[in-house]
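Run log // design_07
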């Protein structure tokens, strides 16, 4: 399912797709989303949010799911979930996701989406689920035993994509097995009961991994992430604390100088300059100067996003309205699709 052959094939398809998408955006429905386990950070922003906003503004039909049921795939608690969901809506809005164009919604408020899980589960085998490498990796990382929901969440994710007949899904490489599973479910359903679903395609995100402040992948769980919602002062403190090395002269060398290089990449993303150019400019001024430059670049880049976010923080009623309206629209789509599914299956009484 995830061998390199299928990765190459996916990459090829993805490139052709993006070309067509730029020409005929209205043909496409994009579905993607996030787990509401914390605040969005620069890794999310440069990795996916920025591209979502671009596609939205291009005229692609855009749906974004706040995947609240995925929170309990590998953890035992829903603590802070309401706060995390509202804050995720604020982050989206601040980044330019426009609720007039994009439907923002949550799993838990769209019953018909979840109901697709039952027929879909009948179309997958235990072996397919067991060999999904992403599920395996997530189970190991969580340190928990494999729950039924973790094992089957790729099927649930197929429900997310197919309830709105999504045909393009921007994802990172780790999510590719889930897209393959979704395509298989759509194909099997259509073969068995008649054509209801498109077979969605992945849009592969740029393979550049956004480094966290320590050079590892930026992730909240590593404590190396620059959240969008931080203040300028908090950003400064966090960057000041980041680990560099004892060599004064600044060079870009990911392999041997992960800390310094992560800082350079962060500044490069925010300024549009290259890492090498920035490194050469800082040169012998050392890590202190580099950190000051990174702080300034990040704070300047995020200033308009943060300004909008502060306004939404003062207007929680508006944020709630956005989500309520998104959930209403998602329910309309899900009810329509579920009735097509029941019709195709002859479950009409
Ligand atoms: N699993 C995705 C993640 O952890 C989030 C997600 C939920 C998603 N449903 C989706 C992504 C449907 C793409 C399509 O990032």
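design_07 sequence
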């Amino acid at each position: 399912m995830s061998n390199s052959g299928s990765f190459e094939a996916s990459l090829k398809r993805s490139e052709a797709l993006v070309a067509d998408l730029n020409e005929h955006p209205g043909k496409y429905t994009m579905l993607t989303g996030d787990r509401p386990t914390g605040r969005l950070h620069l890794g999310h922003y440069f990795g996916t949010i920025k591209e979502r906003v671009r596609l939205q503004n291009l005229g692609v039909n855009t749906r974004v799911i706040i995947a609240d049921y995925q929170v309990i795939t590998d953890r035992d608690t829903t603590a802070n979930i309401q706060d995390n969901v509202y804050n995720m809506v604020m982050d989206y809005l601040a980044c330019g996701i426009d609720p007039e164009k994009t439907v923002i919604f949550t799993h838990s408020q769209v019953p018909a989406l979840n109901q697709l899980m039952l027929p879909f589960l009948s179309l997958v085998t235990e072996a397919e689920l067991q060999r999904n490498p992403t599920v395996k990796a997530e189970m190991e990382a969580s340190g928990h035993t494999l729950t039924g929901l973790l094992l089957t969440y790729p099927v649930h994710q197929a429900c997310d994509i197919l309830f709105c007949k999504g045909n393009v899904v921007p994802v990172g490489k780790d999510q590719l097995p889930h897209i393959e599973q979704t395509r298989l479910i759509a194909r099997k359903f259509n073969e068995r009961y008649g054509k209801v679903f498109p077979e969605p395609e992945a849009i592969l995100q740029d393979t550049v991994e956004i480094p966290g402040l320590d050079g590892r992948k930026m992730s909240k769980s590593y404590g190396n992430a620059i959240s969008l919602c931080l203040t300028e002062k908090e950003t400064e403190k966090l960057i000041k604390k980041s680990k560099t090395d004892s060599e004064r002269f600044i060079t870009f060398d990911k392999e041997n100088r992960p800390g310094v290089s992560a800082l350079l990449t962060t500044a490069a993303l925010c300024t549009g300059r290259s890492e090498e150019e920035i490194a050469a400019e800082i040169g012998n001024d050392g890590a202190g100067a580099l950190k000051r430059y990174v702080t300034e670049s990040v704070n300047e880049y995020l200033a308009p996003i943060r300004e909008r976010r502060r306004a939404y923080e003062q207007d929680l009623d508006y944020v709630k309205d956005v989500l309520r309206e998104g959930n209403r629209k998602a329910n309309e789509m899900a009810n329509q699709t579920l009735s097509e599914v029941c019709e195709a299956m002859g479950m009409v009484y």
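The mean pLDDT is 94.
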